[in-house]
Structures are given as structure tokens and as C-alpha cells.
What does this fold into?
Amino acid sequence: MKHDLNTVERAVNGDAEAFEELIATEKQRLFYKALSYVGNKEDALDAVQETLYKAFLSIGQLQQPPYFSTWLFKILIRECYRLQKKRHQLIPLGDDEMITRLEQLKEEKKEDHVSEALSTLPPPQRSAIVLFYYYGFSVREIADMMEKPDGTIKTHLHRARKTLKAQLTAVMNKNIKITEVVHLVKEELEKIARSLAQVPQDFRKIIENVEENETYFSWMDEEQEKGVIGVKLDTEGRLTYLTIDMLQENNATESSLTVVEKQAIAEQYLLQHYPDALQHFTYHRAKELEHCNCTRFYYEQIVMDIPLSHAGSYIDVNGEGEVILFNYKGVKTAPPIPEQLISTEKLAAHVLDQLQFELVVDKMHKELYDVEEDSLRLVYLPQPFFMKYKAADMEPRLTVEQEETAPEITRPLPSLAPIERTELSREEIIGITDTMEIIREVEWGHELGIVWRDRNWTPGESDLSFEAYFKEHTEETVKAFVSEKTGKVLSFLWFHKRSGSLQLDREACFEKALCFLQQMIPEFLPYVQYIVPVNDEDEKNETKEFFSFKLLNEQGIPIQSELISVAVNKSTGQIDQYSGPRIDTQQLKDLPHGPVISPEQAFERFKEHLDFQLVWDKEYDDEEEICTLVYKACDRYTKTDIRAIDAITGEIICDKD
It folds into this structure.
């Protein structure tokens, strides 16, 4: 998703309102992406919550503002995998149950009077009725969407109401009021959703989120022991997204079906909902998903032998033949095919001419990169980070122009007077009061996430929307991460606003931040340097002062993945936000003293592996979604992005497929 670069840069520089503005447009996309990894609503919402929390704490590390969304989604994927390690695996509902359900659905004779009545309306009248009564849009808004005059929309609504009233009165043998028609229309989509997912009777609805072009429903059982089901429908009641996660004590058994058999089930499911799908889509590939013990089948819309971005469909089938996830992205208008393409030789020359390397220590996560295990490594990071070129331009032109950024300035910490360290509880460190209680604890990899809130807090009026859920789970809370092994507080963030009578300036707040670090991480202070703000105006906030610190090893090489941040409340002098190191000093000492591979050798390794792949890339032009053919720099052998070169072994580290 394209974001205003000024807003991103303000967020990077500590502007909380700018960050909130950015994530407001990302929450739903994050949720659907999380669902595709963890398979159920509760875990997906947890993953999104922790992603937003950690993104807020580490936004200062974002080096490429144009790629805010990419950075955010990488955090999400990592959090999904961390959570999945602590969760049950997906398991089948029963032998051949999905096939049985599909056959029953075909033969079932429904008494959906409203659906039948709506289906007889001309498409413009049907769209107007659904948009007006179900989605609550005004006549003016519907007119804009349908590109018709207001009077035409009013006519559509008037005629549709008369037709529906007459048909329903005849079918149901009673006089139907228009208010009853409206209620029935609203219920109809949920009825369709329930029939598609076969929602058990003891499951209750927990989300009913209405958007302009779609509605999402989610159900779970009262005891939250059986699982979660989610369904997304478009305005015509067609299935566009399905997730089924039924939990049991035992993990899923190994697959009893072959990939070919599972593909047949996936294809049958796709054709059941979109009979003409294979006229537009082509089976492209299958991918084994270890985290949910299933196989994902991709059906792509192919243009120039290349899958079209954000089109097609993918279906997850588990070992017993259950369709546990279905995502239909639709048929897109084929973009124009360029008459001529730039040569990859010219692109390679351009990349190598501007290529630079940054020597850093970074955490290589196996969920994100093609490595065997999570580990700290001394690596060369190629710059620029993202290399995509417009394929139709005869001179090399990046899809996103790289803006020059001011070099980062750091300085050692000032001499600190010794302080008397006292053993404090986690509540004392964070500032939790006696009036607060723990409302949630979640195991998150090797960390424990804890949320506190005042005992007397009462929620306001709410609904079943995503926004209401996030508000209920975040409003007036304090969230922290604690090491399961040591019990040490690793980070915390106050969503509850605290106020006092102080009026501390930045210098006074800086002293409090340093005293806090002395208390929290005294062993790290020799490796810590303060990041000097490039522009003091960027750091201004009405209620808080934000401070960022970089961690370096004994040789002065920055630890890319370990940014330390502290926010001091100006009116109370308390710490409202803290994010500390996730490693220990021994790991710092064990790091290599310097690179074995020289920058020149890294350059040759990169050159040897550099290749380009044609892809359709989604872009936005004045809010209009378009597809452009681009050449993406990639590894010659894996066809994935080159992210780093190991400075000890020379290994090329690529994105995970």
C-alpha cells in the first residue's frame, strides 16, 4: 500500500499520531494476512496487536520509508511464526467431511426468499438496495460509486423496494413491510456465510465487519475450545475468503492424501464457487505449509507467462482433504503489454555501478530468510535495499526513487554517576499501580506478553467491527514483554495516558532516560550510543520526549536488529515506553571481531548471483490500482531477493520463498 512519505518520515522520527495514521489503513490487510498464517481469528488478532506494538517500538529502525508496508508485514510474519510455535496445529474435522458438505451444498434446497427476490432485480437496483440498506451508504455516496446522478439512484431504490415488497408478499403469503425487507437483506449475507462454512450451532458470532465492498463474519464456540471460523463475502454474497480452524488436544496426523488428490479437492472447491474460474486462472504451483500441516495451491491469472499481481486464488488443503483456507482475489483487467523491454545487461550495469555495502550485525530469522536457524551474523547489507525497475523504460528507472537521507549521527553516552541499583518487580519497573489487574497473558515464543488495565475500566458502546475489537483490547492498557527464561522486562508501552504537574524539558527527560537504562541494562551501557536527532523539530511531542540508542559490538559494528528506545513523560517524569535488547552481552562478545570477506569480495559474490525476474507489480496512481511490468533484482538460483552477504563465509542470504 502506498503511503505519504512525509507521514512515514514523521512516524520514524517519533510522531505517534503519524504512526496511528499509517496503521489505520493497514489493520485489516494485516488481519487477513495473519489469518493465512495462523488460521484463526483470535491468534490473527493477537499477531496483529503484537505487530503494531513492536512496529511502534521499532519504527525508528525503518531505513526505507517508501517500503513501510513491506517492513510492517515482515514483522507480522515473524510474529505469526513465533505465536504458531505455542499453538495447536490445524487438524481435520472428520473423514471426508468436506467432500460430503460440498455435495450436500449442491443438492440442498434453500428457502432463501430474500435471496431469490434480490436475484430477480436488475443489477443496478440490486446494488443500490444492498449499498443503501445493508452498508448504510447515502444516496450521494452510492451515486458517486455507481457514477450515476442522485435522481437515478433514488429511482433504483424506489423501484427495487416496490418489486421486493410485492414478491415477498406473494411468496410468504403475508403483507411485508419495507422495514422487514431491510432486516431480511441484512440477515441474508450472514445466512449465506453460515451455509458456506457450515457453522456449528453452538458457535457465536464475534465479528461482523462491514466495509464498502465486503463483509467479514467470524464465529467461535463459547468456551473457545473448539475453534474459529471466518467468512468474507462480497456485496453479491459470493465467497471471497474462508478460514476454518478446529482445535483438538492432539496435533494433526500426517497427510493420508497425495498432492494430486489434494489439488483435485482444491480445484473442485474453486469451481464450486466460481464455475468459470479456470477460464481466467491457471494452476501455477503448490507449496507445503509446515506451520499448518497443509498444502497451498495457487491458481493465477497469467499475462505474458507471468502471474498477475493481486489476482487469482489460493486454497489450503490439509492432510485429510479439508479446505481450511480459501482466498479469492478475483479477475483483474489485463494491463497493457510493453512493446519493448529494457535489457537486463543495462540494468545489471546500473545496479553494480551504484551498489554499496553496509557492514552490520543482524538477526537472520529463518521465518523470513533462507537460513537454517535464527542467528546473529556479521553481514554486508546491499544498498539500495529494494531494486525494482520499470521494464518498459529504456533507461534504468527504479519504481521508487531513492531519496537521499542524512547520515545517522551517534555519540557515546555521557559519563554517568554511579547509582544504587535496587531489585524491582516487573510491576515497579513498568509503573503498574495497585488499582490495575492483568487482563491477558500470551506466550509469545520465548517471551510472555502481559496486558494490564484498571479494575474499574468499563467499555463504552461497542459493535462487532475490527475497530471495536482493537479499541477494546488496547484502550487504557499497559502492555509488556517479559523473558520467560529470566523474568526480565524486555519492553513495555503505556496506552493509558498519565499526566502530572511537571514541565520537564528535553535535557531533564534525557537524564531520566539514562538513569532508567542504568537500572535496566547496566551491563550493556559500554556498547550503547545515543542517536542524535537530525532535526530537533522531528522529535517534538506534546506529552513525551523520545530517545533512541544504538547497540554496537566491541569493534564498533552496529547491531542492526537491536535498537533501544525510551520515551519519558514530560509531566510525570515516568517512562511511558521502553524497548531494550533481546540478546545478552555474551552474544556480543562471541561475535566475530571483523569480516573475513572484504567489500570487494562481497561485490563479486553479489555480481555472480545477480539476476532479474519479470513480475507484475501493483502500484497506485491517484488511488487507482494499476499493474506495471517490472524487473526485480534477484538471486540467479533461487529467484528471491538478495538480502545480505555473510561477511565471514560469503554465503548469499536470500528471502524465504
Notes: The first helix runs from residue 5 to 12. The two ends are 21 Å apart (CA to CA). The CA atoms of residues 114 and 185 lie 7 Å apart. Confidence is low (pLDDT under 50) at residues 88-111, 248-253.
